[in-house]
Write a structure and sequence with these properties.
Blueprint lengths: L3 H25 L4 H9 L3 H32 L3 H15 L2 H12 L6 H4 L10 H25 L3 H9 L4 H12 L1 H16 L3 H7 L9 H9 L3 H23 L14
Helix pairs in contact: 2-13, 3-7, 3-10, 4-7, 5-7, 5-11, 7-10, 7-11, 8-9, 10-13, 12-13
Length: 266
């Protein structure tokens, strides 16, 4: 017999699911095929979508290249510095994006911390495509580093020790043992980071601006469309939300197995 506590938990759980899912259903029902075709043909759609895809792919590449060794160090290091660095890396997850945008502006803007250093070289970062990438990288990289570090922590240290005793160097042991065993966690972390970068709004708006064809990503295009045509904003939202849904579905379908044994000899 179900206890009153279990029944109440099921009721509140169902209510929470409805609260989360109902807006998505409403969004999907708010547009017709005619609206979708008109939205795709709108002059804002192609530049914003192209910029979002281009910048987020660059952001993802930088995140994986720089975040993987950082995550490995955080997962394997036991000193206090690693714990401090881990907290600092995770900070953008909890700091509001608007605060991140202001911080980036005060760092790379003309009157910011690095502005006077970059200006003699003719380098301007704020309100450029580079600013879009930096904003996306700042808010999304922590998701990858956190997921990758957690995946690395699940590796049995003895397996790496055995690989070293069989003649594998530290880099070879990392590439042939650690990476294959944690590929699912790394892919999940990369997917979360890419989704976060794709949906970034606040930091990008404040640091890069909202210039069509230059710094206007899809979230910013949705913001601009709301001022003139709600139906257009709905279509843009459907594409952005649909992409995120497909990404989440792909992540959920990933096999959790670590894969076949790998060769440990050099």
């Amino acid at each position: 017999m179900r206890s009153p506590l279990s029944a109440a938990g099921a009721l509140f759980g169902a209510a929470l699911v409805g609260l989360l899912v109902l807006p998505l259903i409403a969004l999907a029902m708010s547009s017709s095929w005619h609206d979708i075709v008109a939205g795709v043909a709108d002059p804002m759609f192609a530049p914003a979508m192209g910029l979002s895809l281009r910048t987020t792919l660059v952001t993802l590449a930088l995140t994986v290249v720089g975040g993987t060794p950082l995550a490995w160090w955080l997962a394997t290091s036991t000193n206090r510095l690693a714990r401090v660095v881990e907290v600092l890396v995770d900070l953008p997850i909890v700091i509001p994006p608007a605060v991140v945008g202001v911080a980036l502006l005060k760092t790379y803007g003309r009157r910011g911390l690095l502005g006077p250093v970059l200006e003699p070289f003719g380098v301007q970062v704020s309100f450029t495509e580079a600013a879009v990438i930096i904003a996306q990288l700042t808010v999304s990289a922590p998701f990858f580093v956190q997921a990758a570090a957690n995946a690395f922590r699940r590796i049995e240290p003895d397996m790496l020790i055995v690989a070293r005793t069989l003649g594998a160097s530290a880099p070879i042991a990392f590439i042939r043992i650690a990476l294959p065993m944690t590929r699912s966690g790394i892919i999940v972390g990369a997917s979360l980071a890419w989704a976060r970068a794709l949906g970034e709004f606040g930091a990008t708006l404040l640091f890069a601006g909202n210039m069509t064809g230059k710094t206007q990503t899809m979230p910013l295009a949705i913001f601009s469309a709301l001022e003139t045509d709600v139906r257009l904003a709905v279509v843009f939202s459907l594409f952005l939300g649909g992409g995120a849904a497909l990404l989440m579905l792909g992540v959920r379908l990933l096999p959790t197995a670590s894969g076949p044994p790998v060769e440990t000899s050099p």
